[in-house]
Amino acid sequence: MRDAARSSVTVSSDRPAVLAVDDVEANLVAVKALLEDMECEIVLAKSGNDALRQLLRREFAVVLLDVQMPEMDGYEVAHHVRRNPSTRDVPIIFLTAANDSEGMVLRGYGSGAVDFLFKPLNPSILRSKVRVFLELRAAHRKVEAAKAVLECTNLELKTAYAELQSTHAQLVQSAKMASLGELVAGIAHEINNPLSFVLSHLDTVRRNLTLVDEELTPPLSDSGRQAWERAHDRLREMGPGLERIRELVLKLRTFSRLDEGERQNVSIRECVESVLTILGHRLREGITVETRFGEPDRIDCFAGLLNQALLNLVANSIDAMGGHGKLCISTGAEGDEYCLVVDDTGPGIPIHLRERVIEPFFTTKPVGEGTGLGLSITYSIVQKHGGTLEFRDAAGGGSSVTIRFPLVREDTR
Hints:
It is built from ten helices and twelve strands. The protein is of the alpha/beta class. Among the domains are: 2-121, Response regulator (Rossmann fold); 262-412, Heat Shock Protein 90. Helix 6 (123-214) packs antiparallel against helix 7 and helix 7 packs across helix 8. It starts with a helix and ends in a 7-residue tail after the last strand.
């Protein structure tokens, strides 16, 4: 029976309810008869204590409260209702048959009543006043529902706006990287053509000078011989310099891959070396670079994107070390996963920030010195490879960041 009563209360609480409070049974029956055809539930209470229990159990659109009751009169009931935060906004209409109308009304309003009716009750006036509060309750419910929808919509808009900002920032960054790739590819192409021409002609000049050298008779003067030998020395020195330029051009072309939409089988060694070439101007004498290349060297990946992710990690390490320290890049397979690890001797990433550093726009750098997008973009690239981005303390101090993603072997492609 207890469960059934509790269930009925829960079901009926969805309907607007009116609480009628009177110690006289006949008065309660009369009020219920006057309101029974209205769109509401009539709840009856025979005492002040019973009324307070009902008010704590459910919500009421209005309370019709008799003033003169034994044990606890209407004023005391109203006082308790107004003191309770969960019931203080419930409208109270006092009902009384007392003759001291002016004193009763003043005391009633003073105790928190919104209206005052005298017995015998005028049916039309009672129904009219109750209808007003039922309509107010319905309007209040609509406002609350609209507010809830508005808050939900506002939250969705905020989330969508944050995602839009993040996506826009990543698109801008990706566009910058694409532009950089196009620029690097263009420069590499423009340099490669005349470079190939110079290298070819350098070899021709060497051979011809060797032939001329054998036919130089009689012997040259001392000054002439010195000039001739100096020319040979300069030609020998030009060779390694031009080869160095060719090597840089190859690394620039490796970095500038624009095939982000397709996976390719590429050399990780070449990727790492190309990134170090791009950032070579920032690797001053105070930063030592160590590379440890494991097997396999060639892996299946989105080459351009992986270059960008590695560039972000290395650039962050350089920033963290402030021009002095050691940078170590390790690559290789661990089981069915490929790992690319960047260690540095900087201050490291505090544990409480490791979950936040991948958030868009989050940065610990001073204003104007960082966008807070590097690690966020790197995380997105790693996700595109179906992998994870892990942060931990490096063995010798500093931070260690690991890109880990499934290894696609040649025999499974």
